[in-house]
Amino acid sequence: DVLFNDGGVIKAEIEEPSGWKSPKTGDEVQLSMKVTGKDGSTIQELKEVAYTLGDGSLGPLSRAVDKALQGMKRGEVVQLTCSKEYAYGAERPDGAIIDLTLEELYETKDVSFDKDNTVKKKTIREGEGFDTPKDTSKVKLSAESATDGAAPLPGFT
Fold it and tell me: The PPIase FKBP-type domain covers which part of the protein (predicted)?
């Protein structure tokens, strides 16, 4: 698949996905990525890192990676063949090859009563089956932080 009209990034599917949702700009994902030069030398390697689509944190690779991720699903592995315009520019005139794996797609929802983003739920792993917890169910909850609106609550610092 050609990702941009100028043919600067070619995407080839290596492994089929196991999920059904695709991320969009602003979504957080967990990805693994290995970037190699056309000569086979490793330029960069990231394993199971959190990345937000559109934040530009992958530097010169962000544009190609963002575009590819928007068409991927959890578990999918693709190879992107990038021209220098979508990789490292003059630093790598031959471009680069990116092996990209979408490990997880994190779903974040506003679950506050007033829908004012004061309480957010982030799904870090999609459940299996159709069961959902009921009022008396036991669940495992992990909280990163809690505040009273201004200062952290004791025990959450």
Answer: 26-114
